[in-house]
Amino acid sequence: MDRYATFREDLEEKLSDGEFKKLYEQELCKLQLGHQIAQLRERLGLTQKELAKRLRTSQGAVTRIESGKYTGHTLR
């Protein structure tokens, strides 16, 4: 690999690896979902604490969901 490759070029090369691509897409989905939840919450004028109360969960769980670091997603 070229020592001066850009991030995008490096990523494109790595995405040619099927396993890397699968894991990358899973992480991207988590980040996108978290971002969408945060945008909707803000549009509704809710704090994380208020959303957590409505969802019967903790403010910390909302923070993790919005950051894409939460792995325990359920339909409930």
Q: What is the share of helical residues?
A: 55-70%
Provide mean pLDDT, rounded.
Answer: 88
Q: How would a textbook summarize the main sheet?
A: none
CA-to-CA gap between the ends? 45 Å
Number of helices: 4
Number of strand segments: 0
Description:
The protein is 67% helix and 0% strand. By secondary structure, the protein is mostly helical. Helix 2 packs across helix 4 and helix 3 packs across helix 4. The chain starts with 6 loop residues before the first helix and ends in a 9-residue tail after the last helix.
Quick overview:
The chain is 67% helix and 0% strand.
Topology:
Layout: H1 7-14, H2 18-43, H3 48-55, H4 59-67
Entry keywords:
mainly alpha, elongated, 4 helices, 76 residues
